[in-house]
Amino acid sequence: MTNIVEPGNQHETDVVIIGAGPCGLFQVFELGLLDMKAHLIDNLDKIGGQCAELYPDKNLYDIPSRPAITGQELTDDLITQAEPFGPTYHLNQLTSKIEVQEDHIEVTSNLDTVIKCKSLVIAAGSGSFVPRKLPVPNVEEFENKNIFYSVKKRTDFEGKKILIAGGGDSALDYVMGFHQIASDITLIHRRKEFKAVQDSVNKVMSLVDQGEVKFNMGTIKQMVDNGKGQVDITLDDDTVIDGVDAIFPFFGLKIELGPIAEWGLNLENNLISVNTENFETSTPRIFAVGDICTYPGKLKLILSGFHEAALAAKKMFQYCHNDKKYVFRYTTSSKDIQEKLGVK
Description:
The chain has helices spanning 22-33, 49-53, 71-82, 169-178, 198-209, 302-320, 335-340; strands at residues 3-4, 10-12, 15-18, 38-41, 59-60, 69-70, 88-90, 95-100, 105-109, 114-117, 119-122, 128-131, 161-165, 184-189, 214-217, 220-225, 231-235, 240-244, 246-249, 253-256, 267-268, 271-273, 286-288, 293-294. It has 344 residues and is an alpha/beta fold.
């Protein structure tokens, strides 16, 4: 069973992996073969990185032994492959700070999760997926108070007046998800055409026709705090929607390097420079694999990241088990490894 834990607690493990995409997941497997435990941190609300977020239903054709496999199928297989080693997942969190000590690293997330580890792997793809913000002045002062880019418990907004902005699947899913929970729902989109699946469009437009959901065509021009914990919204056609408790903007995701840029690592065009012997960065105990790392001849392929993860694990063994000798073993012949994998 996948171990996804709540934020805000303290943990200790061998290795922290930043990024729960394909390379991060395979890193768990390679570490597990060498008796190292791992925790993974990802700012998405799901495991799988770009594969799960951007192309879950699209085929990949360059994964060894798989003529075709979808992003979600690859993710599911990698989760299953890592499962025998009991990884712990911290989702919906950004790694905000790392402190490198002589014999360990302390990793802190933006939600106050603290993990002490012996090595750190950055497997963050091209960076962190972050939502595109609502393009209004002083948006930051309303975030997490009136503006929310995701929600864990819809019931927290029971009886509230909410506004949902966007025309894709996420926006319409939220409209349907909050129906009969929120007291008042307004959907805003800049045009009549939607990018969501047609079935969702039909269901939401049916709610609009029945008067259970309001629909305004336009964009948000201004937000003003009304002093009651709510905001008054002005659209680009000067329509005013007052007394809104919560706004959910869905304008897609963008990729940012985020706090990684502030960690003192050698960067080259927003990528992390590593050596090709073990993919360690300029800071001892910190490694980078996958699209986030760069070196001469680098190819941004998932299979390249798998190779990088295997060699990085070998070096991390020295940091995590400095009292033991590294012994290379094949999964085909090692009874010890097969026992860990549950092979009978």
